[in-house]
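Entry for the shared binder. Reason: the reviewer on the internal report wants the predicted structure included alongside the sequence.
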Amino acid sequence: MADCPVLCDLAEELLALWASPEWDRRRRLWVDHWAGRTREVPVACSMFQGSQDLVWQQILPEETFHYKEGFARRIELHLRHRLWRARHIPDDVPHDPLFTLYAAPGLAPDELWGVPLGAHSTGQAGGAYKPVPPLASPDDLKKLRLPIFRADEARRHEQEEQVRELVGERLPVCFACDALHNGPFEWAVRLRGMANLLLDCYDRPEWLHELMARITEGMVQYHRDREAAGYVCDRSSRALHTPWEEWPDGEQPRLDHAWGYLHAQSAASYGPATYAEFVQPYNVPLAELFGKVYYHGCEDLTRKVETIRELPHLVQFHVSPWSQVAPIAAALPAHVTMEVHSHPTNVLFLWDAAQMQIELRRLVRDAGDHLFNLKLCDIQTINHDGGEALRTWAQAAKEAANGWN
């Protein structure tokens, strides 16, 4: 197939924005923000990248797309999503034209850890399901096999060729091939089940430490093998929560050129002391792999910050609507920025501009002198308002941020 005019025109439009003085300003703002070189507060209204969630079906209905299926459809989604955000949301995010391709091979259910990762499901598209933990008893730990990194080189080359056939060399591409991510405790939940883990803390703590150590050992080696195979993309590691970063140029990106996204959200029901014993020590080896670490947690981290702040290379800390900004600001080291979130449900369903401003001013006040950025995320719907709430929030956040400087 020759270059596709529809896709090429969209790509050129996005690339022109990427090269514009305004987006250069945005990139520099985030780089200076991470380094503590500016007191300006960046604002980010972040929507899932390339997803086909309900929110995108509301914003860009099916009939607006030129392509209905195949690889061309994937590229069109990628471009139209970014262009819509660029045109409609007045925040500080430079929407990267980088197109991520996936080179992970298809895996059998027991291929990652040597045990089946099954689930009970309604069988309906979008219906409920419940994972079945394969480590039903402590003796099952001996069945656990550490994961082996594999990539599908044929798939990698095939996808790259398809991109080039459709848009030539216009779009920068990268290859993702990570089946594990960076949260050891979440794998403990998948393998053992959270109800069991709550009891394991008391009934068999030494066994739980053994489980966590095995999982962490496997994840660290997996990521090192992924790095050695050339499947680390520093530019795509930023995802939703680090809109831009600059790293030294090198022949092959390394883990210490990338952001690590650490988390243990399923441990919300662990108290601070239990978290410090069974979660933090196993996040540390993962954090040590990466150049900069973002810690994510939609749960209340107000007291756990006293532990999490000790993570190596921590640069950004998620402050959800369920966490308290002021005590976290007091607890974090000065160089760690806070990602301070507005309440997405209230923003999208309940509040007008004045109510958004009230919350934003409170968040800014509670942040005090600590470095922070303002964030709206977890956007699953626009409530059929055409995105007006997103625009209103971004404008209100910019006004609140300007009041802080």
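Summary line for the report: The chain has two domains: 5-103+151-177+229-404, 106-117+131-145+179-228.
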